Amino acid sequence: KKTIKTNVTVPQDGSARPFSSLPGSVEIHTTDDEVLEVASVNKLYKTVVLGLPVVDAGKHWGNRDSSPVKLSNLYSELLSIPEEWRTAPLSAAKFHQMKQKFPIEWYHFLLGQLDLFHLKENPSNLLKDLFKDTALKDLYVQSALSCYIAMFGLDDTVVSPGHIFRAYNGSLPWSVCLDWLIGNQELYQLTLKTFRYTVKLMVDKASLGPVEDFQELLKYLEEYENDWYIGLVSEKEWPQAVLQE
């Protein structure tokens, strides 16, 4: 597998040094003076940036209804998600306010990629039933938005490069929602993986141009999954990916 490597700086004496930057495929070359300047900026940033902007968010937190969901058919039940993935401490009002962020077209596209032709029921009719099952959709909306809020916070603030870097490394500012997400380790790892894929996609779009349609986006994601390891050098999967390559 291919790997995304951490950028390094090369001082004038030619020796390599680690450099804290967004992972990417382009190495950064700089001088000793520039390294010292960046180090001082990073030190100041670590001192004053403790988390997301302070807001009175108490009214946004609450326990979502975790009562059994009534899905419309058997196949919707097969696509359901674990109950603990929809128990984020998020109020119903905030959930409905942010519901518009959910990419419903992408959700329908992915449902259309499911292999339904081995089933006895007519695949086209079954797909229409899945599209109409609002209970199934709401399960994915609730889980996806909970992960989004854990990563980016409750407010629609512009995400800084520093926040992106820390999120990539798994060093997010604490919040009630993040605490809930980390408690669901499988979901947390999927969320972190998704975020890192997004960073890689952002780098690819900058160099190769925008993604034209969902089919091309799916191709990118499949390539990341099958041919790359997108993570940190310190993670145990990194040397395994290098050996596979």
TrEMBL record:
Major place of localization? Answer: membrane
- Topology versus the membrane, per the UniProt entry? Multi-pass membrane protein
Please indicate which superkingdom the organism of origin belongs to: Eukaryota
Q: Which cellular compartments is it found in?
A: Membrane
According to the UniProt record, one GO cellular component term is: membrane
What the record says about family reads:
Belongs to the pecanex family.
Please state what the protein is called. Answer: Pecanex-like protein
| Organism listed in the record | Micrurus carvalhoi
